[in-house]
From TrEMBL:
It holds the Pfam family fn3. The keyword Signal applies. SUPFAM superfamilies: Fibronectin type III. This is Fibronectin type-III domain-containing protein. The keyword Signal applies. Residues 540-619 form the Fibronectin type-III domain. Residues 1-31 form the signal peptide. Keywords: Signal.
Amino acid sequence: MRNRLNKRIACLLMIALIVTMVPIQSAKVQAAGASTWKVVKINNTAFDKEYSLEFDTGGVTYGYKNGKVVLMNTYTRKLIKITSFTEINEIRKIGNNVDAIVVKETKGKRLFGVIDKTGKTLIPTSIYTEIFFTTNGFFAIDALKNHYFLSRDARVLCEYKNGEKIVQYGNYFAVINERSLDFKEMYDYDGNKVDNIPESERTANNQYYIMRNTLIQGMIDKSSESMNGLKDDMLPAYYKEHNPKGEWKRRYSYVTPVQNCYIINILEEYGDKNNVLFTASKKYLYDLKGNLITVADDIKAFNNTKQYIVSISNDKDIKIYNARNAKATAIQPSITGEYDYLTFETFGDYIIISKCHAYDDGGELQPSAGIIYDLGGKVVEECDDINIYSNFIEMNGKYYNEKMEELSVQGSIYSATNGYMIRKNLGSGKEKIIFTDFKLNQVTSAIIKKNEVHIFNNYDSDSIPDRADFDILPNGAGVHVSSEHMSKDDTKHYFIDRNGHVRKEFSDSKGYHYYKVVTKGSTNQIAVLKTQKAATVNIGQTVISSAKNTAPGELTVKWNTIKGVTAYHVEIRREDNREYIAKDAKTNSIVVTGLKKGMSYKVQIRAYVNRGDGWDVGK
């Protein structure tokens, strides 16, 4: 979360770029009509007030006119539709759909609905007092606090109770108890109740809640019991010396479903009465029927497909498992030289084993020498120097993608929020900067004056660093770069097209501007709309007006309404910190069930606004 607003908190006891631009046809900048917008190449705007979004809607701009929600064509600036709704609550893009949760308020009563980007009503504002986005539809609540899982065409897929929640995966979703996680019912996405998932479709994921209290609990118990015989070997000498009594303080278990396998991590904190002095853990791999496959120091699923699992024990016993049938392939690390321990990472369809050195204080060095294996355990490459990034690796000064294809990289790489910037000195006071995505695919490049874009931690006389970042424009049309001059309290902005031409630049020191970039079909054309910085929205202080025990183990909390927020995030924590609940509400009240009788609870409420790419949070 980005905390861009002043934070205030309501709390009650007892109860968070660099250089280029896009082609714009020549046209005079005209007045923005009835709004604060000033636009380039566009004649006017149909809004009294625009609804700010931070993602590409594919040609639709949202706002208000005469108190009603309005949709406008971003390119022509002509109205698409004037609706009868009075408020936009939230807009999200899920898959190819851009939908808006809207509100109609009449006589103080607020009802929620959903529209698509043409203004068509998907869910009418006639029943629901709260609606939330979810992956495959919407969660909704009516005035009687009944809960519903709705499809995008407003069908009720299932009704569930307060205190229950929906878990979605694959072709099915489950209703479980929000607190105990006990399984209740399974459905498909046509709303049909499913008693038994066909065996051919069963996975560790969709069986987790069904088997959680039986088969999986048995796996946890079996794994935990085996830890009892390991602790003497796992304790370091310094701990035995300083705490000869040897008290196990806490034991935790974590279960990770992967295809047709479960990875169970048993973690134990070992210490005295006041401090955790040592943490020991072992990981266990089981198949879908609960058969133990292996015990290892570390077990990881592959990052890309999760079809394979790797285990490592004693810095020498390394195996690759097919996560669908648990069949193993053993490999032997052929790393020579000195090292303190081995680590491994999954990279594409490869495994990288690296040797590491530890300092006396337990700190780690970046893995240096390493060896790369394919899924068959065959050595692909050995290297003396390796650095692992998210989507590529640097090996002996060369760069490779996830297919182990060498990438053409000339220059120094710098990380940015949405990719990498590669700097190459051209001499004569010039340098070339290449902008890439996270896989080092080039978006564009530009030749600039040396150090014109401050991405290299240059320091001025006051030792305040300058820095830069960039966004990739829709359809790969170019990049938007912001270069921050911290000592001058100024940020310069550049738009660079895909051919490396700087098409627009401006500076915050002359009044903050926000440029909204939109695409038009598949032509890679963009329009750059200039507006003055929106006034800072003061979400305001959330004040709890009442918190009452309305039934045994039930708490009802009410607070003040803050106009224009997306929702309220409610956190409830028991006084001994052994119970924590987090829920969202779109009205100014919430009912929480299943609390422990006789205990005190702290309640915190934060109002927030979601604009699609971050959160403005009150506190």
